[in-house]
Input
Amino acid sequence: MVVITVSGLHGSGRSTQARLLAETFNLRYVSAGQLFRSIARERGVAVHTLSSQLMSDPTIDYMIDERTKREAVKGDVVIEGDLSGFMAGSLADVRIFLKASDEARFKRIAKREGCSIEEAARITSEREDRDRKRFKIFYGVDPFDPSLYHIVLDTSMLTVESTFRILRVCVEEYIRCKGSRGNT
Output
């Protein structure tokens, strides 16, 4: 049974890499972000609006966190999200954190969202500041702290394919070593 978590800064490629890892290793893919976006759609509000409401009402955060924990217990999964590594805790075999320069992240987000780089920078910076404060208040943790993770990779100057090759080898080696430890 393998549990991989992928966290990271917005625009660093974490969703893409999590999906690729799940597909390659025939694991389930669970995205805290997808769940959050579906809740926003159900409530008829924008993601950044719902995100700003979470400071006063952590109910949605707690619901997503509990789902993350349940999925980690089931195993054979790649869980992607801000707090996935923290929530999966010791159940996570490999905790990955992806980062990238602000310039690279904001360009990627602007392209994905169809907005200007300036708008992407403003919205993303505000969201990350709010998230960091919220996670400190509710959990006492900074999910952007690289010491929480086994693998920290800067994707700024890497292609999607290059990033994936690096992560794939790391996970393959982990699985190989985990298997050989079980045989000793």
DSSP finds eight helices and five strands in the chain.
